[in-house]
Amino acid sequence: MKITSYRRDPAKEFSFTPENAIKAKAFIARYPEGRQASAVISLLYLAQAQNGGWVSPAAVEHVAEVLDMAPIRVHEVSTFYTMFNLKPAGKHLIQVCRTTPCWLRGAAELTRACQEKLGVGFKEVTGDGEFSIMEVECLGACANAPMVQINDDYYEDLTPERLCEIIDDLRAGKEVPIGPQSGRTCSAPEGGPATLKDVPDPAGKGA
Amino acid sequence: MPKLTIDGQEIVVENGMTVLQACEQAGVEIPRFCYHERLSVAGNCRMCLVEMERSPKPVASCAMPAGEGMVIRTDTPLVKKARKGVMEFLLINHPLDCPICDQGGECDLQDQAMAYGFDRSRFEENKRAVKEKYMGPLIKTIMTRCIHCTRCVRFATEIAGVEEIGALGRGEHLEISTLEHAVNSELSGNLVDVCPVGALTSRPYAFTARPWELRKTYSVDVLDAVGANIRVDTRGREVMRVLPRLHEDVNEDWLADKSRYACDGLSRQRLDRPYLRRGGKLQEASWDEAFGATRARLDGLSGDKIAALAGDQCDAESMLALKDLMAGLKSPNLDCRQDGAKLDPSQRAGYLFNTGIAGIEEADAILLVATNPRWEAPLINARIRKRFLLGGLKVGAIGVPKDLSYPVAQLGTGPQDLAELAAGKGDFAKILSAAERPMIVLGMAGLTRADGAAVLALARQVAEKFKMVREGWNGFNVLHTAAARVAGLDLGFVPGPGGRDTVGILDGAAKGDIEVLYLLGADEIDMSRLGDKAFVIYQGHHGDAGAHRADVILPGAAYTEKNGTYTNTEGRVQLGRLAAFPPGEAREDWTILRALSEVTGTPLPYDNLGELRQRLVAVNPVFAALDTRTPAAWGAFGAAGKGDAAPFGETVGNYYMTDPISRSSETMAKCSAELGLGPQAQATGTHG
Q1: Domain co-membership, A168 together with A106
Q2: Interchain proximity A6–B179, CB inside 8 Å
């Protein structure tokens, strides 16, 4: 049973920081006068970033107020899109892709490894507030499967061991290279090119 | 005017109609769930699929505009298969709990599954379950039954004007929800009606009756002055529920919550036998004893020491009978304006909602004076909102600022602001002068004041200044809150020559000038002002304020228990009908007065309702034209004056408790505790 709960904690207030308020104004200015509600997704995303990775009821109400919308209308949007977290998330939100290519290449093992490492299930936050894990559908990096997205960055060509190292490094505050973890460049073939190795003959003789 | 062919039948329809409406016009039934004629088109249930020539697949007829030369078929195997398929999908997650569902027997899904559905399900997975949502004391939710037609979302947003219901999540996880609080609207009961399944049902009515065991009586509502058409469902003697009945010019399909849910008050606090005050205590008595005591007190009393007040829910017949009885007793002291409203009974146009309720849709500028239509007449407020949604409407208000569910320009708070407007000052004056169909709505809060006559005159000045009364349009409107008021004024239940009005009667009673006071269902007066000298006869149906002060109680019938004539605020004469008999020894009100007239030696000249109604028509011919608004000629009314500086107050402090029936209702008590002050809450400390 899915529960779309909306528990407003009166003690928790939310409003945009001055910088974000300026950004919000810029988002709203992209739309014609009176169509400010069109900026709802951008503003929710902004609010999520400011609120530590999740959209709280207070944030929903603040966005509604800024856009002159009914709170329920904003909440409809925030529940529709999976990229809005309606529960608190860790400082590093690990989104494990589980769609077919990643799954074939071992996404299930990645999930198990990081769940065991962190000791939390999906959409739960570790005790120190550092990490949470989420299962997501295709993130569009199938050529580098399996992969995870941590906050805004992709970590590709993963093995369970490498993912655990990344988690350790992130926890230690170390810099972790983004992109493929296997040493290859982007989605170039592993171990160098396998086709089109011959330099084409400019005169076209060898054809 | 496109011409199209539906099932081989050629039909011409109006521009802008949809294929579904064209099919209805052609007499072809199209099943539907999400489509509702008074709501915007959503097109998401897919039940109304029809086959259209030259279309590769079936089309949703509710969302397809009727076009010239379309050839529509609704009886082909393709259509039947489409309906079966849609029905099967709708039932995938719908629990088959009809035997324990309150909608059973009057459920669109049940009926259409029988008519168009498949006879078995091929779905073998688990059905989803959805948590109940809280929507307040009036609406019970069983959200697992929801088929996501979104009618409730559209009703709340469009008609009620409270954006509090939404569709959260998506796909399999879609849920209709509020933000976990009650739906704060006076029209929320209609959500139960628009819901085509048993997801939203009536909480007070839950598990009490099945539709097929109820006797249905078409009647008229009296809990406000709109005169909404209702259907009273009774089982035995008990009113189980009240539902709206279609009347395009009055309530459309809707009904306000108080009118719908106060019916449990009809079986509480009832006066079911006569009472007599003996030694300071009210004691049960027989009719003979009650009449005897009344006669003993009236014997030899001169007419000017007798007075009568009629309450807010009286039928015209009983008021006329009381008026005739008072004439027999030679008393000029009678009034149907128990709140002391300074209405001029001689000018009918001065106390009617002249535009008519449907006429609101033609207005382009509305001035609200001393009124909160959202609480005084929710259905009229819904009409104004409907007009607002059509675009181009300007609304200005003078009085207590309120959220009326549409934008309102606040122009002031008291008579001086009205006077300024009458002098043509301010921006709204320009809007009113430019308007083609301007109207003013004057509330009771402006008229019940000491300077009410001056306010009435100011309102007339405004109406004349901005030419609100013109050819084919009378934009002067008085919004009553009492269902009996217009009929009372129409039949002249007002002080005769040299007679006292409400204030005079109350003062007279306190001083001892009035020795016998007859209260016909009048509970809204301040009983403490009566003093303890006067002999008070209370005839009514509830043990409310009037009965507590009374020396003799004559038990009468509530509006569902008698055949009566009511005139609503726009002057429309309508008949209420007997749905159940009054309890115990209570009797229909006019018969009590007829019997009493025999005792006092001034017998009334009618022996049955037919004769009484003939007398009613003889007194004022408007009562002959049922369900018609008889237009009234414009005249001069009100008394010139400046009006004092005090701001206008509020007529209705607590929407859910305004009369003896709603005050006796448990449901209304719950609403009042939870929603009573509602979104318009202004903590003034004076609310009931």
Answers
A1: yes
A2: yes
- How, if at all, do strands B49-52 and B59-60 pair? antiparallel
- The residue written with tokens 């089982």 in the block is B235
Residues within 8 A of B (CB atoms), A 68-87 only: 70-73, 75-76, 79-80
Cα distance between residue B273 and residue B284, in whole Å: 7
Q: Which residue shows structure tokens 């709109």?
A: B226
CB A134: neighbour CB atoms within 10 A?
Answer: 17
Residue A173 lies in a domain: yes
Dist CA A3 CA B485 (whole Å): 50
Q: Same domain for A176 and A97?
A: yes
Please report the pLDDT score of residue B687 as a whole number. 38
Query: How far is A133 from chain B, CA to nearest CA, in Å?
Result: 20
A202 occurs within a structural domain: no
Residues with Cβ within 8 Å of B72's Cβ and at least 6 positions away in sequence, in order, are B4, B5, B6, B7, B19, B22, B23, B50, B51, B52, B53, B61
> A53 and A18, same structural domain?
yes
Instruction: Report chain B's mean pLDDT, rounded to a whole number.
Output: 93
Closest chain B C-alpha to A82 CA, distance in angstroms = 9
ipTM of the complex: 0.86
Mean pLDDT of A17-43: 96
At residue B680 the predicted structure's pLDDT band, cuts being 50, 70 and 90, is: very low
At B627-638, the pLDDT tens digits run: 999 989 998 898
Please state the φ and ψ torsions of residue B683, each to the nearest 5 degrees: -70, 95
Do both A15 and A46 map to the same domain? yes
* Boundary residue ending a domain (A80, A109, A142): A80
Name the residue among B129, B131, B168 with its Cβ closest to that of A76. Answer: B168
B173 touching A (Cβ < 8 Å): yes
Same domain, A97 and A176: yes
Q: Is residue A199 part of a domain?
A: no
The 10s digit of each residue's pLDDT in B235-278 is 999 999 999 999 999 999 999 999 999 999 999 999 999 999 99
Both A170 and A118 in one domain: the answer is yes
Contacts of B129 in chain A (CB under 8 A): 1
> Residue B411: enclosing H or E segment and its boundaries?
strand B409-412
Which CATH number goes with the domain that contains A149? Answer: 3.40.30.10
Tokens, residue B438 = 């301007």
- pLDDT at residue A115 is higher than 80: yes
**Measured between CB atoms, does A137 come within 8 Å of chain B?**
no
**B180 touching chain A per CB within 8 A:** yes
pLDDT, tens digit (0-9, with 9 covering 90-100), for B42-72: 999 999 999 999 999 999 999 999 999 999 9
Q: What's the domain range around A173? A: 92-180
pLDDT tens profile B432-445: 999 999 999 999 99
Q: What pLDDT is stored for residue A6 in this prediction? A: 74
Is the pLDDT score of B681 beyond 70? no
The alpha carbon of residue A72 is apart from the nearest alpha carbon of chain B, in Å, by 6
Question: By percentage, how much of chain B surpasses pLDDT 90?
Answer: 90
**A124 & A97 share domain:** yes
Mutate: best of A4, A67, A84, partner B, most B CBs <10 A:
A4
Report phi then psi at B176, rounded to 5: -85, 130
Nearest CA in chain B to A81: B169
B370-414 tens-digit pLDDT: 999 999 999 999 999 999 999 999 999 999 999 999 999 999 999
A37 — contact with chain B (CB < 8 Å)?
no
How far apart CA A107 and CA A133 sit, in angstroms, is 13
When divided into structural domains, chain A yields a total of 2
Whether residue B602 is predicted with pLDDT greater than 70 in this model: the reply is: yes
Instruction: Give buried/exposed letters for B368-390 (b at 16+ CB in 10 A, else e).
Output: bbbbbbbbbbbbbbbbbbbbbee
Quick check: is A197 in a domain? no
Q: Are residues A70 and A49 part of one domain?
A: yes
CATH no. for residue A64? 1.10.10
**Res. B685 pLDDT band, cuts 50 70 90:** very low
